[in-house]
Design goal:
Largest sheet: 5 strands, parallel
Oligomer: single chain
Strand order of the largest sheet: 3-2-1-4-5
Order of helices and strands: EHEHHEHEEH
Helix content: 25-40%
Radius of gyration: 16 Å
Shape: globular
Strand content: 15-25%
Number of strands: 5
Number of helices: 5
CATH architecture: 3-Layer(aba) Sandwich
Number of domains: 1
Structural class: alpha/beta
Distance between the termini: 42 Å
Length: 146
């Protein structure tokens, strides 16, 4: 993944503070909206890494309900999101952060402490998840409707 960063800003103009977050963003719900809004509040622009179908299968043992293309399309329609890219591997997270020029990495608190090793290249924040809502729970409820 290559992200072009324009570092040729005129003198006297404060550089934009870039925030990055990652996720599957499957079966999009209000918890997703909340983390995107709260992430953008920590900076000026938000970049979102969307887990590939294979990465989600590796992490969660299932493919997403919605295709990668559809998930990316939904995210690009959200006003809080400035840029979206495909996250192919958890092992490349450091490189994604560097390539994006991110100043802040934001993750849900279910990942608390798991990305502290990136504090040498950016600020790391963990946000409390929206109570009583998760993609997994939504999928289970839908499966039970018959």
């Amino acid at each position: 993944m290559t992200i072009a960063i324009n570092n040729n800003q005129p003198k006297g103009i404060k550089p934009l503070k870039t925030v990055i977050t990652f996720g599957t963003f499957d079966v999009f719900h209000s918890g997703h909206v909340n983390i995107l809004r709260r992430s953008l509040e920590m900076g000026d622009r938000l970049i979102v890494g969307v887990s590939s179908d294979q990465l989600n299968l590796d992490k969660k043992g299932r493919k997403p309900v919605y295709s990668l293309k559809n998930r990316m399309n939904i995210l690009m329609a959200i006003r809080y999101v400035d840029e979206v890219f495909v996250e192919e591997s958890l092992e490349l997270k450091r490189q994604y952060i560097i390539d994006s020029g991110a100043d802040v990495l934001v993750m849900g608190d279910d990942w608390s402490g798991k990305f502290d090793q990136f504090e040498d290249i950016c600020e790391v924040k963990y946000l409390t998840r929206t109570p009583s809502i998760s993609t997994t729970e939504i999928i289970e409820v839908i499966k039970d409707i018959e």
